[in-house]
Amino acid sequence: MSVVIRQPGVVLTDHLFQVPLDHTAPQGEQIEVYAREVVAVGNERAELPWLLYLQGGPGGRAARPLGRDSWLDRALDDYRVLLLDQRGTGRSTPATRQTLPLRGSAAEQAEYLSYFRADSIVRDAEMIRRRLLGEQGRWSLLGQSFGGFCTLTYLSLAPEGLREALVTGGLAGLRSSAADVYRAAYPRVARKNAAHYARYPQDVEVVRRIAEHLAAAPAALPGGGQLTVRSFQALGLLLGAGSGSDTLHYLLEDAWVRGSAGLELSDTFLAGAQAKLSFADSPLYAVLHESIYGQRSVDPGPSGWAAEQVRAEFPEFDAIRALEDGAPVRFTGEMIYPWMFETDPALHPLQETADLLAKRADWPDLYAPDVLAANQVPVAAAVYHDDMYVDTADSLATADAVRGLRTWVTNEWEHDGLRVSGGQVLDRLIRMVRGQL
Fold first, then answer.
1. Is the pLDDT of residue 1 over 60?
2. Is 196 a catalytic residue?
């Protein structure tokens, strides 16, 4: 029986679905997928269209609502919203360092996780749609970031299930390999570094001092991990959010404390760094990150830790070289590196599994360019100018390749515009897809 909870302005209903691990073998192993229905108070029995929300990631559970907060406030004016915990996340059958060993060897774990990409997520959603809306029912779709990648897969595999689609910061390159993605990403990250240091020039020396300290001796994090120079640089993931530069600066200004042995990195700083760097709450983000780009028709080979390989083409991200040359130490961005599975206790048990996925070749295609070129579903997408996480050129090329897709290119928001705009981004997309703009 579904659990129903009331919060200010909303009614929440739990749903749990059994779906096949492998949708090509529907009678085989089943896993659970959880979703939370959200409807405005007073509309519990109203005949509203459904809006499925696909979270960013990979490996991110759906947001937990606190009443009519963030973009939900606007969505609930028009829709009955379904927040999906994509397979492996949240209250769906979990895939973590604690659960994956139950699958057996690293090879067996990697095989299991090969069914956790966008194509499986879309097929889960289709089964859920049919159970909630019936065979002929169609719903609207809102995809944020990786959820937008999934939206393109949905439009490729099952457009008949959609009445309209909205995308925020998530138009993937249809023909971009993992190496292509990172080759375009490092220059964007370099620009975000330059903007941060222009805003906070005092951070140049602070960052250099921290890097020098860590180069001499990595610091122990409160959760048992290690803060090395490279993991310190990974705090640059923050720079793609609207307030990320400010958040990074405030973290850095608490870096030092004078203890009994002199200056040392403060517990406040180390705890803050751990909160930003640990993958304990989203291990699939790291384990599956490069596999989300795998497509046999684009690049039949393995991703091979593409972010690490491509980094060698951008020596300006070499922190030790920067220290020797007296240059600013640059932060990295949305890159997953093999050494993260050594420094993060939440990832360490999955190191061999992740390596096998990085070596896996011949991933099935996620997008059908011919289907997208003949698309009949109304689609509107927000493309954030100089988005650090998703390449704008790729996004605009994809927009041109999807028939009828309308874009709104804006520098008013960063990649997290949907969350921080108070519903303004969503409202504009709704009006665009309805032809009101």
1. no
2. no
